[in-house]
Amino acid sequence: HTDIPDKCAVRPQTEHMNEVYKPLASASCNAAAGTEDGLNNFATPNPTVPNAPAGTPRHPASLGGSTGGGAAIPQPHSNPASEVPSPAEMEPDRPIGYGAFGVVWSVTDPRDGRKVALKKMPNVFQNLVSCKRVFRELRMLCFFKHDNVLSALDILQPPQIDCFEEIYVITELMQSDLHKVIVSPQPLTTDHIKVFLYQILRGLKYLHSAGILHRDIKPGNLLVNSNCLLKICDFGLARVEEPDPSRHMTQEVVTQYYRAPEVLMGCQHYTSSIDVWSVGCIFAELLGRRILFQAQSPIQQLDLITDLLGTPPLSAMASACEGARAHILRGTHKPPSLSVLYMLSDGATHEAVHLLCRMLVFDPAKRISGSDALSHPYLDEGRLRYHTCMCKCCYSVPSGRVYTRDFEPPADRPFSHNYEQSMHSVWQGKELIHRFITEHQQGKRVPLCINPQSAAFKTFIR
Ligand SMILES: [Zn+2]
């Protein structure tokens, strides 16, 4: 018997009800594999299951997406935590996104009724490369502790190792992303742009301080909710910074429109400055509400960049491959035309264009860092607004606001990827990931697993 509504795609793994702290050693195969056994292992959640902490912010789904609606810039007197759940939170489980490396669903956590995002990471164990990639993403999601970076709230309990094929991660649910906001008709004021850009750079500073390059910063990977809170997501292409410049790094990174010139020119080694270039493109896109460099091919992409920045000096192409350098030198000499950036919109003030021009620098060595960009005066208002009424690091007392000591904290330690060295085969990877998930959950809330009886499940597995 169960009183879990069938529409829930996840349910408590009640095999654990009386032994929450013990790893699941004897469970039969997950019913995702279609076995009857899987269905009988679940029951009602224990009433003593801890609820989400009081005051956990609820995010009405009124921003962007198919529902339209507007994003209200939070005012200092508003308190996001006091908002009541909107009718949208009663919506049944449904898909909300499809990435290169998985599907994301909006689901209800049966332990507390909260809407959360459930991401399926498929084809994990096809080969060693995918195994390492997924494990890296999983470990990063569990490592992150920053309000502007999406992190894992939970991982669904894996079945026993022979049946372990897919990984399901639960993250906070966000209503929209910057791509949807930019193409929507809703107004995007200078205040919006400042608070969005501030949070992008705040999250990026944290990632870079942990030694992580995101490598696919684009509007669709910047999740936002109706309170304008922003979180960087999708770490499918992220990797640890390579300190050795003689080590080759893949060129297959970053959606073309946001790809830095050094990557377009085939350099073999790049740094976190490729993410800053992407942020510059997004900043211009927020101002102009159109993609800054929208080219049909990587070569045209480079041409559009040099149309704006002018022909780069040889010194800025030191790391470029021979063919790319020849392409630039073959063309006519172009003068820079940065003044066109003032025509992006009324929001393109001197301050805005100044910061934009520090990000859109051809030579990665001369491009501003994410951390330094945060010191630019353009972001002062965004910082004030964020820490006055949006953040979790500062708080109000009757006499005023108590601000945190570090507005843009770095990571407390670098992300380590040493574990990858001990992964030599798919089976070994499977064991490592299985152990990681099981250990990650020990001592935490009642574990969840996929609910194969849910109405949404059939659609979900397709
Ligand atoms: Zn704060």
TrEMBL record:
The keyword Cell membrane does not apply. This is Mitogen-activated protein kinase. Its main location: cytoplasm. It is found in: Cytoplasm; Nucleus. Its cofactor is Mg(2+). Transmembrane segments: none annotated. It comes from Cyprinus carpio carpio. It comes from the Eukaryota. Belongs to the protein kinase superfamily. CMGC Ser/Thr protein kinase family. MAP kinase subfamily. The lineage of its organism: Eukaryota, Metazoa, Chordata, Craniata, Vertebrata.
